Amino acid sequence: MAKGSEKSAAAGAEESFEASSERLSEIVRQLEGGELPLEDALRLFEEGVKVARVAQSRLEHAEKRVDELLSVNEEGEAVTRPFE
Questions:
Q1: How far is Cα 33 from Cα 65, in angstroms, rounded to an integer?
Q2: Using an 8 Å Cβ cutoff, are 21 and 54 in contact?
Q3: What separation, in Å, do the N-terminal and C-terminal C-alpha atoms of the chain show?
Q4: pLDDT tens track for 12-41
Q5: How far apart are CA 52 and CA 27, in angstroms?
Q6: pLDDT tens for residues 59-78?
Q7: Do the beta carbons of residue 14 and residue 23 sit within 8 Å?
Q8: pTM beyond cutoff 0.85
């Protein structure tokens, strides 16, 4: 299990927001099951924290981009910049 958790955590930085959300749901289900040994539960919790941070960062980036897209200048024209 430790190797799978390490792979998932490493991939977390590259996953989409939706994939991160699915992984977090899976982690919560496993932790709520209450059948994991303490060390496995701690590793899974740690992975969950990492995945949640990545997802939060992606969400904040998306919110900033939406704000930029909805911005207007003094003349009421859309403020745009090249998409990254």
A1: 38
A2: no
A3: 37
A4: 456 789 999 999 999 999 999 999 999 999
A5: 11
A6: 999 998 888 778 877 787 77
A7: no
A8: no
Give the contacts of 15 (CB within 8 A, at least 6 positions apart).
23, 51, 54
Specify the amino acid at residue 59.
L
Assigned token pair, 65: 């981009």
Question: Going by C-beta distance under 8 Å and a sequence separation of 6 or more, which residues neighbour residue 12?
Answer: 20, 23, 47, 50, 51, 54
**Which residues does 41 contact at the CB level (< 8 Å), separation at least 6?**
31
Q: Which residue has the tokens 């949640």?
A: 52
CA 59 vs CA 2, 10, 14, 47, 54: distances in Å = 28, 19, 14, 18, 9
Quick check: 31 and 38 in contact, CB under 8 A?
Answer: no
